[in-house]
Amino acid sequence: MAHWKATTCMRCAVGCGQHQRGVDEGYGVDKVRGNYDHPTSEGLACERGIRETENPSGEWLTEPLVRRGDTLRPATWETALGVVAAEFIGTIAQDPDNIAVLGSGQQTNEAAYALGKLARGGIGTTYFDANTTLCMASAVTAYYDAFGSDAPPCTYDDIPVAQSHVVWGANPAAAHPVLYRWILDSAADDDSRLVVVDPVESETAADADHHVQLEPGTDLQLARAVLARLVATDRVDRDFIDAHTDGYDALVESLPAAADAASTAGVSAETVEALATTFEDRTLLYWGMGVNQSTHGTGAARMLINLCLATGNLGPGTGPFSLTGQANSMGARVCASKGTWPGHRDFTDQDHRSAVAEAWGVPLNRLPDDAGPGPVGIVDEINRGHIDAVWTVATNPVAGMPDATNVKRALDDVFLVAQDAFRSETVEHADVVLPAATWGESEGTVMNMERRVSRVTAVSDVVDTVRQDLDIIAAVGHRIDDDLFDAPPLEPEAVFDELRGLTAGTPTDLTGISYDRLDRELAVRWPAPDEETEGGYRYCDADGESWSFPTETGRAQFSTATYRGLPEPTDATYPLVLTTGRRPEAYNTGVRTRDETTDVPIARINPETAGQYIELLDRGRTVVESRRARVAVNLTPDAGVPTGALWMDVHHPAVNELTLPAIDPDSNEPNYKQCAVRLASPDTSTTVTRAGIARPGTLDDD
Fold first, then answer.
1. pLDDT score of 692
2. Which residues pair with 183 in a beta bridge?
3. Buried/exposed 360-399: b ≥16 CB within 10 Å, e otherwise
4. 10 φ, ψ to 5°?
5. pLDDT lower than 70: segments of the chain
6. Which pLDDT score, from 0 to 100, does residue 595 have?
7. Per-residue H/E/C for 126-168
8. Phi/psi at 110 (nearest 5 deg)?
9. Residue 701 has what pLDDT?
10. CB 341 within 8 A of CB 353
11. Is 514 exposed, middle or buried (0-12, 13-18, 19+ CB in 10 A)?
């Protein structure tokens, strides 16, 4: 009989502790249950995380594949790695920046660290990033602007203490069920409430005491309206502002009239006042992709942080809390050398660069000077002919990036290596496919959204033709520079020890978090500079009285932002706004839950809006067109969607054929949430042009 082993759920970033048990014979996970001893979740677990760990329904990759002509054919590991190494070595000899590497928030800390070490220190490419930039970069940038450091100041311990729970542009009922239970429990207290800000009536909004339904893409303006109202009515915490912050006067000077900003956001003055009132109590302000995935994402996140600073909502039971989607998005940012060096060391600081080069044993001049343009910028560089080879690890850019048709074309023009556990849209375009272990088969650590590090453990072996992410990365790296890694297999604990040594003395200090300590305590928050301590609420003492921020002045920073309008506003040709969101039963781009992704995506539409397009429906099916693509959909009436808008499932692989590749100028995060679309007759075979020329079967013929 197989034994239960403690591990961490990898579905989302809550970081719930699990017990898993492998099958008695063969390969795979048999049973999963919550771990009552785990300090993060204390036995709680969502059925989605359990189901997708026990019985994922995607198509497994079981052996290396190499493209022969138009077909991916089975190959040995030696052949596949030889093809990859030969191509990469030849490309590096021409220019290291001719290779791009895309990692993931699905990797362990150890694999993410190794991939960054190889990309930055072995290859030396500027073009290394991860799919975490597609969801969290705007929040990260705003945190740095305000506090001089990434990651939320608050922890899960603050949720029961808060009175006002403001969920802005997020749907934790679907995305983070265990976290959402804590929020609901706290909001149910007599002196507490749940307020949701979202253009769509989500599962979370349906539970709210108050739902603010703003115009899509106007989060920045609504936040500015609330700030302006608080300032005008003298409901700011001047003592906290004067003692611990800089830039307040400049912020106030930059604010519009509350009524004007509210009008842009499509809400009333009464709604703005109601939102302002929530900040008079102890407030936790949670936000997610609805805020971040916008060309105003950083500005909107800054304003949400400003709301907390201005009202003194910083300290235990209060604060700005960005909700992370992927299980190890935090780890990718701490470990992977993506936008900073390990430990959030500044990318351009010469002392930090020297320390990293010395630790890795590589020449300082091999390290790139620039952190890169983000995933969308990498696709742009491919299209400009500047990149010849791309390596994707545990990510699916063909389905997960905006303007997906353009991404497909770009990746077809390069030598593409896809490393994954399941067959994906990206795999279909690859020249070499490297099959990797998945949940229940991997060893290492992850970090959840409140900065807790915990173990993931293997309860099942893998077939001989599948390898650990860490070992695949090391095998490629060993062929490129045999001093960079030992020949695999590597011990994850040794890699983690190397990583935590590089974080010593940094804001994310992991030196006190050893595997032995994790075996004893199961989960430990950083910073943890020694074996006896762990991080709590950041930037203040235990009483929340003494504050210090890692900024130039040692004080928190207010910042300003200007609203520029939607990057692709509606017009007579494209009169509807498309926004996207998560479904509870699906996972990322659907590769792990593929049997739950229908061939035709669902588009939710307000019945009033749907009534204007009856002539374009064929048994509920129609076509959504943007300036980039046309996608057949099943149209579903839903009064929770505002008039003039469509809501589509972010997990469906066809949806991002429609979305817009515009990015936030500060964070490089794409604008997934708003683009202009129209409905068209499903019997029309023509496609829309980039110029927006009217086609037969569309409303323009009426």
1. 35
2. none
3. bebeeebbbeebbbbbbbbbbbbeeeebbbbbbbbbbbbb
4. -105, 10
5. 1, 595-598, 684-702
6. 64
7. CCEEECCHHHHHHHHHHHHHHHCCCCCCCCHHHCCCCCEEEEE
8. -65, -45
9. 34
10. yes
11. middle
Half-sphere exposure of 528 (CA within 13 A, CB side): 19
Give the number of residues written for the chain. Answer: 702
Q: Which two tokens stand for residue 376?
A: 């969308």
Which residue is associated with the tokens 């990322």?
A: 588
Give burial (CB, 10 Å; 0-12/13-18/19+) of 551.
middle
Between CA 473 and CA 393 the distance in angstroms is 9
408-438 per-position pLDDT tens digit: 999 999 999 999 999 999 999 999 999 999 9
Which residues on neighbouring strands pair with residue 435, listed in sequence order?
420
Spatial CA neighbour of 245 closest among 237, 253, 234: 237
Cis peptide before 74 (omega within 30 of 0): no
Do 289 and 257 form a contact (C-beta atoms < 8 A)? no
Residues 401 and 293 sit within 8 Å (Cβ to Cβ):
no
* pTM recorded for the entire structure: 0.95
The C-alpha atoms of residue 5 and residue 21 are separated, in whole angstroms, by: 6
Stated as kind and residue range, the H or E segment containing 254 is: helix 248-254
Residue pair 71/46 in contact by the 8 Å Cβ criterion: no
Q: Which amino acid is at 650?
A: V
Expressed in angstroms, the distance from the first to the final Cα of the chain is 69
Q: What are phi and psi of 238, to 5 degrees?
A: -65, -35
Could you give the C-alpha distances from 324 to 96, 131, 173, 514, in angstroms and in order?
32, 12, 14, 24
Lookup result for tokens 């003492």 = 541
For residue range 628-676, list pLDDT tens digits in order.
999 999 999 999 999 999 999 888 989 999 999 999 999 999 999 999 9
- The burial class, CB within 10 Å (0-12 / 13-18 / 19+), for 519 is exposed
Contacts of 427 (CB under 8 A, 6+ apart): 61, 65, 72, 418, 420, 433
Contact 46, 29 (CB under 8 A): no
Tokens of 65: 């594949």
Token couple for 427: 């795999």
